[in-house]
Design brief:
6 copies of one chain form a homohexamer. Helices cover about 30% and strands about 20% of the residues of chain A. Chain A has a single domain, classed as Arginase, Chain A (3-Layer(aba) Sandwich). In chain A, β5, α5 and β6 form a beta-alpha-beta unit. Chain A is globular and about 50 Å long. Chain A has an 8-stranded parallel beta sheet with strand order 3-1-4-10-9-5-6-8, with helices on both faces. Chain A has about 290 residues and is α/β, with parallel strands linked by helices. Chains D and F meet through β7 of D and β2, α8 and α9 of F. β2 of chain D pairs antiparallel with β7 of chain E. Chains A, B, C, D, E, F: Belongs to the arginase family. Agmatinase subfamily. Chains A, B, C, D, E, F: This is Agmatinase. Chains A, B, C, D, E, F: One of its GO terms (molecular function) is agmatinase activity.
Chain lengths: ~290, ~290, ~290, ~290, ~290, ~290
C-alpha cells in the first residue's frame, strides 16, 4: 500500500493498513475480495504529501501495511470471528486500523474489536444503503445488516451516527424507520445533490465531539460514474469532491479506525474505482489524530 | 422487468413495460436493439418502493412486463407500422405503456398510437439532440427525425413541448430554429449545468396543465460519464440527479406514456447505463397518475 | 480530423490540426501515442457548427489536418528536436497549430517554436498537475517537467500563466511553491468544485490582455469519470461543462496555438475520452481569432 | 433458455433446464452466480436443429426452462440442502435435469438427488481439476471437493468415472492419487492435445455400458482462450471441437442428467464463454435418450 | 489501409481496397459498419512483404485504398443499389476490388457488379453459415441470404462453389439441402478440425480451373477465440492457420475479387479481430494474379 | 511471485524471479512495464507442484522474488546499463535469474551479464519475430534488435540458437537472411501448425548439448487468441500446449537463465495473458538444473 513497508503485525505502529479480502456477504455482484489487491496496486500513484491540505502523514506517524487478515470464504460467521480476533490484536497496542475491504459485512467484526477497546463509537457512514437490514434468506450476517448487528450489541453510540448518501429503491415503504428509531441521522443523497457538504460536516463535528468515532466508507456512496467497480451500484450518488469534503471534514475528530469497502475491481476495467479507494484511504490517513500539517 | 410477472398482452393492466428491440434507425453506433434485454437484466436490482419519494407503484397499479413487440430489422417503415399497431392494441384498453427502447425512431409510431387515442399530446423530451431533422440520406424515418414526423402528423400539442439537455455541434448554423418555429421550448444543457432543475419543472408543470402528455427520455441526454452505453454520446450533459428532478417533477401530470431509449449496452461493460435506464423507468412508473405515496 | 481534407503541409492554412504520437515521456501508464489516431476516429461525430455558441469555424478559416509529425520513440530529446523543427515550419507561414497529443512532454518543443515567432506567450493550462518538476530519474525531459523547461528558456510570459484544476498528492510538501515564485496563478481543483468558472475566466481574460497566448489542455484536468483514458488520473477533477466554460472563456484572446494532450485511449473502451478530446479541440477552434459567429 | 417456454415445475417434462445461481463455493474469482442469466441470454442464438448431427430434440422430447432453484448465498451447506430438495422434486417425475451453473459445488447435491433415484451413477467429468479435494480452510463443502463428497456417500459408480482435461499445478506432488485409488480414469489434458477424442469416447462408451450416467462439464476444462469467463482458468486446455467430440460421443448412453458449470460471465466481455455454455448444453440435450435424428 | 496512398477512384489501379460500412443486414449483433475503420487502423501493423510466402505485392501491382463507398443505413435495397453501382465503376477499368466489410449482405451487390463483367464466377466461401436463406421477416435482402440471391440471378458458377467451415445449430433439419441442390460443395467445420487444409485446397484449385473466381471470407468462419469481434459467432470454428492455408491455397487461381466481412470491432476490445482481418486481406492481395514472389 | 518470500538481493538463492518494468523500447503498443506487476498478481493461482511432470521446484531449490530492478523510463541506453549491472550482481553468486518483462529490449543487457559469467550462450528463442533488426529511427537499441546486438558483442553461441514461431509480414523480402548467415536455426510458425513439437525439441536438445543456454520467451510467439495482452501480436501463432512442449523439452539442458517478455496486460482484461506468463515461468523453473521430480 502506497509503497509502504510491509510488516507482519501492528506492533510498534501508529497506523496499519489492513486488507480483508472477503466478499461472500455480497447480495448482488461479488468480487470485493479482490478490492485489497487492486487498491494496493493503484495506490502506487499516491504520493507522500497531501498537496491540498498540507498533511504530512508519513512524517507524523509510524505507518505500515500489515497485509491481509485470514478469512474463510466458505463460512461467513467463521470469517467474522477470524476478523474480530485479528483486529483485537491490531488495536491492542494502540494501532489505528485503516481497512481495505472486502464487502461491508466486515465492519461488524471490526467494530466488535474497536468497541471492546474504546466503548461504543460514533460513526460517519457514507453509503447508498443504510445496511441495517435484519436478515436475508434467514441469515443474520451479510453485507446488508452490519449496523443492525452493531446496534444490537451496543457497539455504536447511536446519537453520534450519521449516514450520508443514502438513496435507491427499497424493500420497505419506510426504509429509514429503523435508523430514525435508533437516533441515527440519515442524510439522503437528495440533500447532497449539487451542494458543498462543508456545512453538513460542521454539524457532524459538533455532534461527534471528542469521543471515539469511526469512518466507514462504502464506495457505492459515490455515483457509479465515479465508482463503477462495486457490487450494488445505485444511481445519483455523491461526487469525489463531496467524499473529500466529508473525510477532510473529519479532521480534528477522535478517529479510532476507518474502512473503505465494496471495491469490486472487475467491474471497472479502467482501474479508477480502486484508484479512488486508494486516495480516499490516503485522505483518511491524513485526518487521523496526530497528523501534522506543513 | 423488475421481477414482474410476464404476460402476453396488456389486457387488464394499468401499466405495461414493453420492449422495442429496434436500432436500425441509428446514425452512428448501433446496438440499442439489446437495450430491452439489458435493462431487464439490470432491473433485477430495482426494489418495490421508492425510498426517496415514498411512491408505492406496485401497491397502486396493476403492472406487468408484456415482452417485446415485433420489429422488422431490415425495413424501417415496416417496423414503424408493426410498432404502431402493437401500441394501438396496448392503449386500446387504457393501459399506459412504459417503453424500453430501442433507438429514438420508435417514439414516432408510439406517438401515432397514443395521439390516435388521446389527441395531440404534450411532451417532456430529455435528449442531447432535438431529433427534428428532416431527412438523412433521403430517408424520412430514422432516429434523428421522429419529432418532425410527429409535428407533421399533428401528434404533438406544440405549445406544450419542452426539450431539455440539448447540446453539441450541429449540421446547421441555427439548429433550434425549427423547434422555435413550432413553439417548442428548448432548454440547452448550458442552462442546466450545475443547477437544480426543480424551478424549471415548476414551469413545465404549469405549461403542461392537466392535458395528456408523454415523457420521452433519450439516455444520451445524460453526460456520457453516467451513460456511456449509447450510440451518439455528446459531452457535457445532464446528471442522474437532474434526470430524477425532471421525472419526479412530472408528478401530478396527466402522463399517458413514457419511453427510455438509446441504451446500447455493449458500449458500457459495467452495465451501469442499463441500470440507470431501469431506475429511470421505475421513477417514471412512480409518477404515473394513480400511484399512491406512503 | 472532423472529416477535414488532409494535406501534407501547413502552407496556405489559417489553422492546422497536427498529431504528435509520442508517449515515452510518460511516468505511469503509457499509451498516449494512440491519442491522435483515436481522437481523429471519434471526431467523425463532430459536426460543422457550434450549436451552443454559434461559431462557424469552417466558414471563417482555412482549416486542414496535416497528419502526424515524426517522432523518435526511442529517444526523447531527439523527439523534442523533431517536434520543434516541425512546428517552426508550421508557424512560419502564420498557421495556428491545434495539437492532438501525445503526452505533455510535447508542449515544451511546441512552445519553443511558438515563442521563437511570437516571443514569450501567456498560458491557460488545464491539468491535474503543474508539470513543473525539475527532473525524474536524472532526466530533464519527461511529461512532468515541460513548463519548468519553458520557464528556464524564457518561453512563457510568467505573469500571464494560469493553471487550473491542480490537485492530488505530491512528492513535495509545498507543491506549488515553484509556480508561485514564477508568478503563475494556480487555481486548485478545490476552488472549482461545484462552481461555474465564468467569473474566473473574466479575470483570466483581463490578465491575458491582447498579447499572444497558448492553451494547453491535459485531459487529466477532468475527473476520471469523464476521461478515464489517460495515464495519470487524479480523483475529484473538473467537469466537461467547466472545460467548455474555460475554452469558451478564451474567446477574444490572441490565441496562437492550442494542444489537447494525454489521451491514452486503451484505458477507455467506450471511446468517450477521445470523443471528449475531439470536442474540446473543436471548441478551441471555435474561439480562435477570426472565427465568425452566426 | 433457447427461447423455450418457461414453467414453474418439471411436471410433465422429459427434460428441464434448471439454473443454480450459486458461487460462494468459489476459491478464486467469484461470479458464476450470473452464469445462468448470461447463458440464457446467449442461448437466444441457438436454433432448433443440430445441423451437424441431425438431432431434433424439440421434435422428440418435452423440454422447458423451469427457472432457477433457490439458494442461500450466505450459507453453503444450507444451499446444498435447498438444491438437493429441488432436484429430488425435479427427478421424481422422471424428468432429466440439464443444469446451468453456478460453481462446481452444486454437482454434489444434484448427484445426491440423482443417486437417490437411480443408484450410483457413472460420470463423464470434463474439467481442469479433479475436484476431489478433502477440505479447504477446514470446510468440507466448496467447489474443489464435490466428487470426494460423492464418493464418500456412494453416489458414484467409481469404476465408471472418467475425468478429462485435468491439468495445472497442484498442492500435492501426486494430485491424482485419490482418483486412481477410487478407480477413476484420469485423462490429463496432455493426452488430449492436438488429437481427436473420438477413440477415447469409444472406450468411454464401452466402459459406461447401459447403466445410468451423468455428464458434468466444467467450462474450465476448455482452454481460457475459448472460455475466459471462468473463475479458475488453467492454461493449455481442451478445444471446443474436443468438447463436442466428448458430448456427441455420449450419444447412446443412459444419461440421467447433465450440468455445465463455472461460467463467470464478467470475465468475458465478448459473451462468448456463455455462448459456448449455451451450445454445450444444447449438444447435451441432443444426445439424451429418446432424441431422434433426422 | 496498410499505410497505402488514398485516392478517390480506382482509375489506374490494379487493385483497390474498398470499405463498405454497412451493417443493417445483421440479424443478431450489429456493428460491422465500423469494420472498415478498425481494419484500416490495425493494418498499420502489416508490413511490405509476406515473410512466409515471399510475395511482394506492392512491387508487383498498383494498389491503393479508395475509401468507403456510400451506403444508405436506413434502406437496405437502396444500399445494395449504391454498392452495385460503385463496384461497376471500380471493375470497369480492370481493377480488382478487395473489400473491407460490412456485413455479408454486401457480397450480393458486389457479385452483381463482378458477374456483369466476368460472367458467373466460382466462389471460395469461408463462413460458419451457408448464407443461402430465402428470406427473414419477409425480407429477401439481409446478411443470411446473399448467396441465394446470387444463385437466382445466375451470378455464380454453381459447380465451382465451395463453402468451408459451416457449422452450428439451424432452423432447418437439413440445412445444406439447398446448397447441395445447386451443386455447391459444403465442407463442414467438423471435417476441418485438427487437420491441415492443404489437401482440400488442392482439390479446390482443380475444381476452380482457370476461370474467374471470387473469395468471400466471413470472419465468423474462424473460431470466436480468434475472432470474437463479430455478430453471429459459432463455436468450434477454423483456426487462423487454416485460414492462411485456404487463402494461400488460392494462389494461381483467376481471382477477380475478394472480401473480408462481418468484423464488428466493439465485441473485441483487444483489436485482434480487426488485426486478423487486416492480415487476411493482405494475404488475399498476395495471391492475386500478377503478384511476384521473391 | 507465486506467494514466494520477497527479498532484497539474490544472495543465498539458487533461483531469483526478477521484474524488469521497462517498455520504452516498444515499437507499437506500449504497456509491458506493467507485465511484472500483473504476472505476479496472476501467479497467486500457481501452486507448489507440477502435476503434469512431477517437478517439485520449491523442494529442490532456494527460490525467491527479489522484486524489480531499477530502470530509467526516459533513457533506453541508460536503462540497459542499469539492467546489466543489476544482473551482473544477481549472477555473481551463482543465482539463476527468471525474468518477468518488460519488452524484449531487456534480453540484451541480461545476456551481457550472463555471457560475462558463462561465455557465449545457446538460445531457445520463442517469438513471432526474430528481433534481429539493425536499427529503427536511427536507434540501435529497441525491442526489435536485441539479438543483433548480442551477436555483435559475441554473447551468443550462434550455432546453438533456435528461433521458434517466427511469422508475419516483414519490411524485408528475405527476413531471415541475417539469422541464417549467423547460423541460427529459424523454425517458422508454419512448420509448427497442428503438430507436436516434441520431435523438434529432441533435435534442439542434441544441438544444445551440455553447454550453457538461455530461454527467451516472447509471449507474442503464441497466437493472440491465447495472449492478446501484448504489443505486437501476429496472427496464426503457437498454442500453449506447444509452449509447454518447448519448455518441458528443455529439461536436462544447462539453463543459466530464462525470461518471459512482452506481456502488456491492459490489452487483456481477462488477465489470462499474465496467467499464461506466470505458468510459463513456473514451467521454466521446473526444468532448471537440480529440480527433482517426485
Amino acid at each position: 500500500m502506497m509503497r509502504l513497508p510491509v510488516q507482519a503485525s501492528a506492533e510498534g505502529l501508529d497506523v496499519a493498513f489492513v486488507g480483508v479480502p472477503l466478499d461472500t456477504g455480497t447480495s448482488n455482484r461479488p468480487g470485493a475480495r479482490f478490492g485489497p489487491r487492486q487498491i494496493r496496486a493503484e495506490s502506487a500513484m499516491v504520493r507522500r504529501y497531501n498537496g491540498s491540505t498540507g498533511a504530512a502523514p508519513f512524517d507524523s506517524l509510524r505507518v505500515a501495511d500489515i497485509g491481509d487478515v485470514n478469512v474463510n470464504l466458505y463460512n461467513l460467521p467463521e470469517s467474522c470471528r477470524l476478523i474480530r480476533e485479528s483486529y483485537q490484536e491490531i488495536v491492542a497496542s494502540g494501532c489505528v486500523p485503516l481497512t481495505l475491504g472486502g464487502d461491508h459485512t466486515i465492519t461488524y467484526p471490526i467494530l466488535q474489536a474497536l468497541a471492546a477497546k474504546h466503548g461504543p463509537v460514533g460513526l460517519v457512514h457514507v453509503d447508498a444503503h443504510t445496511d441495517t437490514g435484519d436478515s436475508a434468506l434467514g441469515e443474520k450476517i451479510y453485507h446488508g445488516s452490519p449496523f443492525r448487528r452493531c446496534v444490537e450489541e451496543g457497539l455504536l453510540d447511536c446519537g453520534r451516527v450519521v449516514q450520508i448518501g443514502i438513496r435507491g429503491s427499497s424493500y420497505d415503504p419506510d426504509p429509514h424507520q429503523y435508523c430514525r428509531e435508533q437516533g441515527f441521522r440519515v442524510v439522503p443523497a437528495e440533500e447532497c445533490w449539487m451542494k458543498s457538504l462543508e456545512p453538513l460536516m460542521r454539524e457532524v463535528r459538533a455532534q461527534m465531539g471528542d469521543k471515539p468515532m469511526y469512518i466507514s466508507f462504502d464506495i457505492d456512496g459515490l455515483d457509479p460514474a465515479y465508482a463503477p467497480g462495486t457490487g450494488t451500484p445505485e444511481i445519483a450518488g455523491l461526487t469525489p469532491a463531496q467524499a473529500l469534503e466529508i473525510i477532510r471534514g473529519c479532521k480534528g475528530l477522535n478517529i479510532v479506525g476507518c474502512d473503505l469497502v465494496e471495491v469490486a475491481p472487475m467491474y471497472d476495467v479502467s482501474g479508477n474505482t480502486a484508484l479512488l479507494g486508494a486516495n480516499l484511504l490516503f485522505e483518511m490517513l491524513c485526518v487521523l489524530p496526530g497528523v501534522k500539517t506543513l
